Amino acid sequence: MNLDVVTPSATAIAYTTGVEMDFAFTEDQEAVRDLAGQIFTDACNHERSRELEDAGAWMDDKLWSELATSNLTAVTVPESCGGSGLGLTECALMLVEAGRHCVPAPLFETLVLGGLPIAKFGNPEQQKRWLGPVVDSGAVLTAALSEHGSSDPSRPKLKATRDGDGWRLDGEKFSVPAVGKASCILVPASIEGGKVGVFLVAGDAAGLEIAEQRSINWQLQGLVKFNGVTVSDADILGDPDTGADIVNWIVDHARLGQAALLLGVGEEALKRTAMYLSERKQFGRQIGSFQAVQMRCADAYIDLMGMRSTLWQAVWRVDTGIRSGAEVRAAKWWASRAGDRVVHSAQHLHGGIGSDIDYPIHRYFLWAQYLKSQLGGPSQLLAELGALLVSDDQRPSL
Question: Which of 26, 159, 251, 382 is the most exposed place for a label (fewest CB within 10 A)?
Fold first, then answer.
């Protein structure tokens, strides 16, 4: 059974906008993808993952050090700070590779949740303070976007009130990824007058209370309480007058990063399933030769094609500044729904061995379950998509 992963072709496709879309990646983009893939292949395997899980560790420090040495943790850092100054496309290519290997490292958090927003909206002093250490020492970045009782990160319940010349943050965020390792946390907070500020908060700031949480795929998260955390005007990212738009920008990029991870997870799950079906024999023949099994795999392959197409169209639109609100939600919806079907098929087609944690296929199932629910599950994404189509508000790039 041969289900090779198909990469985007170089064919240019004309859309109704009149703009031609070329799916071919540049040599530099392919180099970033190939380097990341090689490092992940060498460092990430089932045995190493089991070793980390048995030790209660969620992060492979050795792998993270190698990624930092290769400058892959700093691909979104501006060249003025020693980084590569690359964008979402390069991030997505790396994250697809990370998803294929279920990489135990805060790559998504540092590249997408922290690196891209600070590079886009941060002033030179903020970039030097927070992005410089990413280049020099592999510092970790993250963002606190989720709150109980709210599904819209751009309308935070966490309050920022004036305290002399600075600000006082009070409230709570949950499921903050990599929070125990992060040197900087991007924190949206409500400001008097209906505005929203995005604050850059040090990971060891006084008044932070962090309760460790573990996600379904064993990744470290945290319930973070802000008990009078003090920050200054210099810690506000961008202009508070456009703070809600900045949060939406972060969320859109984060959803595409998650969709890229889901694509990698799904591709590798199906690849491993095809290999297993080609080797496992029952009734005197390979089980991959049975029509019902082949149809299940074909459906999964079609799902992956949909995930791939919607992801790269949305990434391209975001990177080129074309209105992309609907495309972002469609990409994350496809990744969540179709990715879930793919890993369910992979798990099912492995039979009983798929339930054995000594066999690696379960890890892709767990990663997909985690990623599909982050920053809005499929139902929320459809509701948002419908509202966008009715209002014709596609959130132009800032």
Answer: 26
Task: Read off the tokens for 234.
Answer: 């210099």
H-helix segments, the chain: 27-43, 46-54, 61-69, 88-101, 107-108, 116-121, 124-137, 243-279, 291-320, 325-349, 361-373, 378-391
**Beta 159-163 vs 182-191: how paired, if at all?**
parallel
Domain boundaries, the chain: 12-139, 159-243, 247-391
DSSP-assigned letters across all residues of 262-283: HHHHHHHHHHHHHHHHHH-EET
Residue with tokens 């599909």, as numbered in its chain: 372
CA 92 – CA 316 distance, rounded (Å): 11
Q: How crowded is residue 180: how many other Cβ atoms within 10 Å of its Cβ?
A: 17
What CA–CA distance (Å, rounded) separates 133 from 119?
Answer: 14
Specify burial of residue 14 (Cβ count, 10 A radius: 0-12, 13-18, 19+): exposed
CATH fold label, 247-391: Butyryl-CoA Dehydrogenase, subunit A; domain 3 (1.20.140)
**Nearest-CA neighbor of 153 among 383, 394, 374, 393?**
374
Fold annotation for 159-243 = Butyryl-CoA Dehydrogenase, subunit A; domain 2 (2.40.110)
The CATH fold of domain 12-139 = Butyryl-Coa Dehydrogenase, subunit A; domain 1 (1.10.540)
Which 8-state DSSP code applies to residue 82? T
- pTM across the whole model: 0.92
What is the CB-side half-sphere exposure of residue 161 using CA atoms within 13 A?
8
pLDDT along the chain (398 residues), means of 10: 50 52 83 96 91 88 95 94 94 98 96 97 97 95 95 96 95 95 97 94 96 89 96 95 95 98 98 93 83 94 97 94 91 97 95 87 95 93 90 60
